Amino acid sequence: MTVWTVCTGNTRVAMASWGDSLEVPLQTHRFQSEETLQVPVDWEEPSRILYASVRPDLDGELFEQIRLQAGCPVRVVESGAQIGSLTNVCDPPDAVGVDRLLGAFAGWKRSGGDTLIVDFGTAATYNLVQSDGTFLGGMIAPGLGLGIRALARDTSLLPEVSLSPEVSPFAVRTEEAIQAGVLWGAVGTLDRLTREAENRCGGQVQVIATGGDAQTVAAVSDRIDSVVPHLVLEGLRRLDDEMP
Questions:
Q1: pLDDT at 95 over 80
Q2: Radius of gyration of the chain from Cα atoms?
Q3: In this structure, what CATH number is given to the domain that contains residue 97?
Q4: With contact defined as beta carbons under 8 Å apart, do 78 and 32 qualify?
Q5: Could you give the CA distance from residue 73 to residue 235 in angstroms, rounded to a whole number?
Q6: 16 and 131 in a common domain
Q7: 70 and 91 assigned to the same domain
Q8: Strand, helix or coil for residue 151
Q9: Does the pLDDT of residue 63 top 80, yes or no?
Q10: How many structural domains are present in the chain?
Q11: What is the C-alpha separation between 116 and 27, in angstroms, rounded?
């Protein structure tokens, strides 16, 4: 049995092909959201596909491309759906992005305890799940790349720079000061929020990170227990496993 999971994010579409494992995909593939879907030729045909998206403007065309190329049923998972055994107490529950819920579901299933799931993507999201599977909500902030681009766009003299995990928090060059501010700002936010999560849950929480900038933040943060690049796709795979 092969299952494909597909998630359309703000800037990229991510896909994974899965066998029996719930944590290790057979293959993964990513492409820009505006590009035409091209499934790698060596992927085994799936028995079904699970699809989630935070880009409703692209869903119709991309969904049709998936259906035609795969030739099997496609199940769409939306924010208002029941995400496995996760209990969503947000108000209203269907206003929470489906990518947040799927990442939270997968992270909680991995840890089995109180878990803080952090997604360093276009937006940086911080979501807390109690050990009993209650999704307590969290925070949404600008992602690291978005912060860098905003500084370059909305100021006269600040340049656009790339992220670096090696930058000192006490930078002596403007470019490095921007890198440091964005990176160490994210590290500081994570450190403080982890303490708040531990206060809320009454004990230690496991921190699982995902998203394009997760490895960069993990290189300088001592709060991240593990980085899982495909966490949202894993959430879809785990959801499929719990479906009747």
A1: yes
A2: 18
A3: 3.30.420.40
A4: no
A5: 19
A6: no
A7: no
A8: helix
A9: no
A10: 2
A11: 26
188 with 103, same domain: the answer is: yes
Same domain, 181 and 127: yes
If you average pLDDT over residues 208-231, what whole number do you get?
Answer: 97
Tally: H helices and E strands in the chain: 6, 11
- Is residue 170 in some structural domain? no
Q: Which pairs count as long-range contacts for 191-197, CB under 8 Å and 24+ apart, including other chains?
A: 191/221, 191/223, 193/116, 193/126, 193/139, 194/116, 194/223, 197/114, 197/116, 197/128
For residues 137 and 91, state if they share a domain.
Answer: yes
Is residue 225 among the annotated active site residues?
no
The amino acid sitting at 79 is: S
| CB proximity list for 51: less than 8 A, separation 6 or greater | 5, 6, 7, 8, 63, 66, 74, 75, 76, 77, 236
Q: 96 and 27, same structural domain?
A: no
**Does residue 104 form part of some domain?**
yes
My answer on whether 137 and 188 are in the same domain is yes
Q: Choosing from 59, 99, 154, 213, which is the catalytic residue?
A: 99
pLDDT of 37 higher than 80: no
217-231 average pLDDT score: 97
Query: Structural domain of residue 12, as residue ranges?
Result: 3-76
What b/e sequence results for 34-55 when a residue is b if at least 16 CB atoms lie within 10 Å of its CB, and e otherwise?
Answer: eeebebeeebeebebbbbbbbe
Pairing type for strands 87-88 and 27-32 reads: unpaired
Q: What is the pLDDT of residues 111-122, one digit of tens each?
A: 999 999 999 999
pLDDT one-digit tens code per residue, 152-189: 999 999 999 999 999 999 999 999 999 999 999 999 99
Cis peptide before 46 (omega within 30 of 0): no
Which element (helix H / strand E) includes 137? Answer: strand 134-142
